Amino acid sequence: MKYLFSLLLVGMSLISIAQNRDGNMKGYNNIRGNNNFTPDQYAELQTKRLTLILELTPTQQKQVLKINQKRAIEIKKHRESIKAKRESGKTISSDEQFKMKNDRLDQMLVMQNKMKNILNADQYEQWKAMKRQKKMGSNKCMGKKYGSQRKMKR
């Protein structure tokens, strides 16, 4: 009887978990995940997140918001173009992939220079550290050990 009851309890919990899946990520990662935010909403969320982390002044907030709005519009256009290509069944050639990656790196350099002009030295270092942590992957499976090994190889 206990076995049957525990089996029933496990089965019901699995069914309820499976029913709650809607494909959207919950929590902080939803800012970057599947969502229906407008570019302005996305830019405002990113700016507020940076304000909390870097303690931006109101003038810095306005400047960062403008950068984030432009960036969010570009990202939305890029995602829509990729989605359209996928739906049409076209594959991206290696030349197109190279161009996209090259453009992305150019955008990152421009963003870095703009942030360097807006932020003070301490804020800029903190922003760079945040970017490095994001690049290395701050999830648990990589951990601190991976980061220290990576630094040692350089």
Protein model, in words:
This protein is mostly helical and 154 residues long. It is extended and about 70 Å long. It starts with a helix and ends with a helix. 8% of the residues are buried.
SSE sequence, one letter per element = HHHHHH
Q: How is the biggest beta sheet arranged?
A: none
Average residue pLDDT: 79
Radius of gyration equals 21 Å
Low-pLDDT runs of 5+ residues are 23-30
| Bulk shape | extended
Counting DSSP H or I runs of 4 or more residues, the number of helices is 6
Cα(first) to Cα(last) distance is 61 Å
Output the structural class: mainly alpha
Percent in strands: under 5%
> In percent, how helical is the residue content?
over 70%
Find the count of extended strands (DSSP E, 2+ residues). Answer: 0
In short:
By secondary structure, the protein is mainly alpha-helical. The chain has helices spanning 2-19, 39-54, 58-88, 94-118, 121-136, 143-153. Residues 23-30 have low confidence and may be disordered.
